[in-house]
Design goal:
About 35% of the residues lie in helices and about 20% in strands. By secondary structure, the chain is of the alpha+beta class. It has one domain (about 1-165). Strands 1-2-3-4-5 form a five-stranded antiparallel β-sheet. Strands 6-7 form a two-stranded antiparallel ribbon. The protein is globular.
């Protein structure tokens, strides 16, 4: 996936410090979702590629077999439970990361929050925002939670129906 590889290259090009609050790419692209359903097809429906600082996993939802996997929706599996839609595509996630806020997943939803209002930006945040603009012509999302809400409005019913096929229920707040 070219866009994800470009982000990996950016991440590896500087010091091992955060470019977005608590966000880290994982080295192993793997499935997540074990423990939510007995059906192994459920776990194969996701491909993890990142985590936040508390252990929530971020993954592509394999909604279909589209030719460009970077356009697959992004979901997060909370470290304390909950599965939530995050963004409609990888590039949209890039814009959310540029807001430099923590991703908080909980049963029934997801929010981008700033836990410490006095904390400065992540160490490589400015460099990341400049990279995002130069590489993709994208700016930070003006309201990350509005993006999550729009993603849920657009894909929430389909996501819930897909999960229900495997006996997994999600309660959106």
């Amino acid at each position: 996936m070219p866009e994800l590889e470009l982000l990996r290259q950016f991440d590896g090009s500087g010091p091992r410090e955060f470019f977005a609050s608590g966000f880290e790419l994982t080295d192993d692209d793997d499935e997540v979702g074990e423990g939510y359903s007995e059906d192994p097809e459920f776990a194969r429906g996701f491909l993890a590629f990142a985590a936040n600082s508390t252990g929530s996993r971020i993954a592509f939802w394999r909604i279909d077999d589209r030719p460009d996997p970077s356009t697959l929706p992004i979901v997060a599996f909370g470290d304390e439970g909950g599965i939530s839609l995050v963004a409609r595509s990888l590039r949209e996630l890039f814009q959310l990361l540029a807001c430099d806020m923590d991703l908080w997943v909980y049963p029934g939803g997801l929010d981008f929050v700033r836990w410490d209002e006095d904390a400065g930006p992540s160490q490589r945040h400015g460099e990341y925002v400049a990279w995002l603009e130069a590489r993709f012509g994208l700016a930070p999302a003006s309201d990350p939670n509005a993006v999550v809400e729009a993603t849920t409005a657009e894909l929430g019913e389909a996501f819930d129906a897909w999960m229900a096929r495997f006996g997994v229920e999600n309660n959106w707040d």
